[in-house]
Design a protein that fits this description.
heterodimer; A: about 270 residues; 4-stranded antiparallel sheet; B: mainly alpha; MetI-like fold; 2 domains
């Protein structure tokens, strides 16, 4: 792992929210306490963890799209330089792209072809959009439809098409796979692999360890807003002895196709 | 297509029953009204003998039982005859045609102005949410919503007509000028103050609705995604904001025809503007039943048409309704 190869490095990320409780009293909650993730060019990093472990917030923090009541601490280094708020605004959609979690992220009243064209150079936006549609197996006439007229799988592909731009160096896929049937699933994962093979860094945020392992290089495990462990993908095999932290092993072994077991440490918590 | 025909049949039946119900209600209320149409007609003239009074009653058909009066009116209406106004002595339909034009100009301008200005201010408020300009816009909307139309009209009259003398005090044409010498400019000058008053009436609602809806849109997932894709605030408003806010705004503004008509009654009264509104008040106070019933029916059709247009427009421009069938 060469240092110059590193696209993104997140160190000690902390995210807090200010909330109103009972009238004008405020309190701060800190769902993200200490996150570390780093991704190299050409690599897929899977980020896994239970719901509420802070996976999506991590993605939103990198893109600078957290809600207004959030504050963000820690270091985010992008291509060797701090990723400031201004740089986020400047780079998102151009070098950093997001593949969002849900199909609700598409404008319900805009034809999907138009949505794919946003951000493409005006001159050949039409041509580029049609190419992208072909690449993702969408028909040309599908472009004239509104999101409500397309199936979930087709909308996923539209979302992918929105993320392909010329100079993308970092792709953040926020749970792109739920509710997708197996063939479409492998197509999506292969697309992510293709992004990485083209030299981009890919962050794959997911619940689904098993399918993520088929394409990813490394895995970062999150729990309660903290990074537990980062391990090579091949450590997730057999009984998971290669994993350092008990929680990672517990997560791995809790899968039905593995031992389907509950660890002693987990049992103690119950 | 069949669906469309069914839809219109249902709407048509609903409209007709509404009109019948409304005419009965108006008629009953006028019967219960303490205003005696004959005294109102002759004014303070006490020399009216009993015979003369009975002659007028017989001429107007007031000596007949109320149900017969109503039925006579209804049968004539079905033949296309709205009757003769008691006060003006002219056919009701002629009066309505003449006044409706003046009212249409007034309401049309106010409707457009309040819609446009309200929409723009609402969008600005939402985009600048919490900042000084947003608080000012909200303040305007709340103040406007609490000010009665006639009071607003009076204040404008005092400032612009009495103190500054920019605009005439009232009526739709200059006094002492023959009607063929009245220029379009004269008419416009007389229209400005009532139109402003009536526009202000609608702005508050439009601002608050637009602002609220725009705030929802700006917090939506598709706008968050638009930001993530590098769209700036102006692009977000242009690409997603207006598109998603315009639809409910248009629907709402057509449904606002009812309030608009109600407001025009007050605004016309304050400015003695000779439109349908002030004629309606006059007909009510003088017990001019045929004229009153005529205007009530026409205004009901107007409001009903507004609501129906709102539905139709929504079905025509909302892709989820248009192409989702």
């Amino acid at each position: 792992m060469k240092k110059s190869n590193q696209i993104l490095s997140v160190q000690n990320l902390k995210i807090s929210f200010t909330q109103y409780v009972k009238g004008l009293n405020t309190r701060r909650i800190t769902p993200i306490k200490s996150l570390h993730v780093s991704i190299n060019a050409g690599e897929i990093m899977a980020v896994i963890g239970a719901s509420g472990s802070g996976k999506s917030l991590l993605a939103h923090a990198i893109l600078g799209i957290l809600p207004g009541n959030a504050t963000c601490d820690g270091d985010i280094i992008y291509c060797g330089e701090p990723l400031t708020a201004e740089k986020k605004i400047q780079l998102r959609g151009k070098e950093i792209s997001l593949i969002p979690q849900s199909v609700n992220y598409l404008d319900p009243l805009m034809r999907v072809a138009e949505q794919v064209k946003i951000g493409l150079p005006k001159k050949d936006a039409n041509k580029r959009q049609q190419e992208l549609f072909r690449r993702y197996g969408l028909k040309e006439k599908d472009g004239d439809l509104y999101p409500f007229q397309l199936s979930g799988g087709m909308l996923r592909r539209v979302l992918f098409a929105t993320s392909v731009r010329d100079n993308i160096k970092l792709v953040i896929a926020d749970e792109p796979t739920p509710g997708i049937h197996p063939e479409a699933l492998s197509a999506i994962l292969n697309q992510l692999r293709a992004f990485a093979d083209d030299g981009a860094a890919v962050m794959l945020i997911t619940h689904d360890i098993v399918s993520a392992l088929t394409v990813c290089d490394r895995v970062t495990v999150l729990k309660d807003g903290k990074t537990i462990e980062t391990a090579k993908a091949d450590k997730f095999s057999a009984d998971g002895k290669g994993l350092q932290h008990w929680y990672s092993r517990a997560l791995w072994n809790a899968l039905p196709q593995n031992s389907f077991s509950i660890y002693e440490e987990v049992q103690a918590c119950l | 297509m069949v669906k469309g025909i069914q839809y219109f049949t249902r709407k048509f039946i609903r409209g007709i029953t509404l009109l019948i119900g409304l005419s009965i209600l108006t008629f009953v209320m006028m019967q219960c009204s303490p205003i005696d149409p004959i005294s109102a007609y002759v004014g303070g003239d006490t020399s009216l003998t009993l015979e003369q009074r009975q002659a007028i009653e017989a001429y107007w058909g007031l000596d007949r039982p109320p149900i017969e009066q109503y039925m006579t009116w209804l049968v004539n209406l079905l033949k296309g005859d709205f009757g003769i106004s008691k006060v003006h002595g002219q056919p009701v339909i002629t009066i309505i045609k003449e006044k409706a034009l003046a009212s249409a100009a007034l309401m049309g301008i106010s409707w457009l102005l309040s819609g446009l200005i309200g929409f723009i201010l609402g969008v600005i408020g939402a985009v600048q949410k919490g900042r000084l300009i947003d608080r000012m816009i909200k303040w305007i909307a709340y103040v406007q919503a609490s000010i009665p139309t006639f009071w607003m009209g009076l204040v404008l009259l005092i400032i612009f007509s009495v103190w500054l003398r920019w605009f005439p005090i009232g009526i739709s044409v200059p006094i002492g000028v023959a009607s063929e010498d009245v220029t379009l400019l004269d008419r416009i000058r007389h229209l400005i103050l009532p139109a402003i008053t009536l526009s202000i009436l609608g702005i508050g609602n439009v601002i608050l609705h637009t602002r609220e809806k725009m705030i929802d849109v700006l917090n939506s997932e598709y706008v968050i995604f638009a930001k993530a894709r590098g769209e700036n605030m102006w692009q977000i408003i242009k690409n997603h904001g207006l598109r998603n806010v315009a639809l409910p705004a248009i629907t709402l503004h057509f449904a606002y025809f009812g309030e608009l008509f109600g407001g025009s009654v007050l605004a016309e009264q304050v400015f003695s503007y000779p439109g349908l509104g002030s004629t309606l008040t006059d007909a009510g106070l003088k017990g001019d039943l045929p004229l009153l019933m005529g205007i009530v029916l026409i205004s009901a059709v107007f409001v009903f048409a507004g609501n129906m247009l709102a539905d139709l427009l929504n079905a025509m421009i909302n892709p989820r309704l248009k192409e989702g069938l």
